[in-house]
Amino acid sequence: GARHPLTREATAARIGVCEEEDFKWWAREATPEEAARPWAVALDVCASYLSVPETLLLPSGRLVHTAAPAWSNKVAGLWWCDFTGLETEAVLPHPATFTGLAPEGPGWYATPTVDYMVREYGFDPATISEAWVSEHTAPVLREWIGRVRAAYKGAMATLGLVDGMDDDAFLAAWSSRKDVDGHPDREDAAVLVDAYKAVYKGGVGKWADSARHLADDVWADQVAAAWHYRPEIRHHIIAAARIAAHRRMRKTLRLTGRAPLAVNVDQVLYAADAPHPGELLPKDADGRPVPGTLRLGSAPGSFKHESSIPMAAVAAALADRVHPSRLTHDYTPAGTPVITEEV
Q1: Confidence (pTM)
Q2: Contact 135, 114 (CB under 8 A)
């Protein structure tokens, strides 16, 4: 965990620590073709942490160190891997790092990241020289995630958002989901959606709660000593969510030639010809969304249209080395500036 004294000591000594976190990437310049497009469309993943842990194999046992690891994607653990030299897509963030930059040396990675690099980029697991592997691996969150997911989708359905909607119907329903005045069921559902979001985001966070409001000694006594302080579990969930996002971006790139300008946690920002995400969404011959790509919907792992930002504003942010996600809340999905009332 980032706040633990051992982590701080290792970081100060430049010893590798596990940094499985969500993407925070904006490392490339727009291509001339992208820069000529008038808009940048921001899409957010719906309930990204609900989309991966139901079947995700997690370290439920003690981690045991080994200097002779036998790689298996069925074993949860942290693995000492060197991904330098592996060729990845230059227009996408590097899948193994939260910065999206290529690693400059070996480091600790959770099983979902290593598995992706083995399967998709040809990493040789025989080169893994060290590991901390779990004595017991199991999908320990299956029951919890299944219940939260079902409750979340039920509340969304009350707000008019269900699986299988076409793009325009979904966008219309999403934009009106907060219109609940005078509708008790919708009022309850809107509150419950926020509650379920707090449950799954807070639940994942509790595995390595930094609790910044607590003094170091109090944190060590109340947080790090608790049964639920299991940073390696959080590492696996975050890694799986980040890899799922990369997989969607990569397949979308293969089918459309389009790549994001920036990625911030579960939000992707793409250049577009109109303040609408339609051109970014791969469809099959029958007009249906292609599995594993960007697609609109309220189901966990699908995307919602957050905002449309003038490309000139995005270009200025990128030139200043400022992450353009800060502009997301300044514009509506239609691309008009958000007007805030002065107090």
Answers
A1: 0.94
A2: no
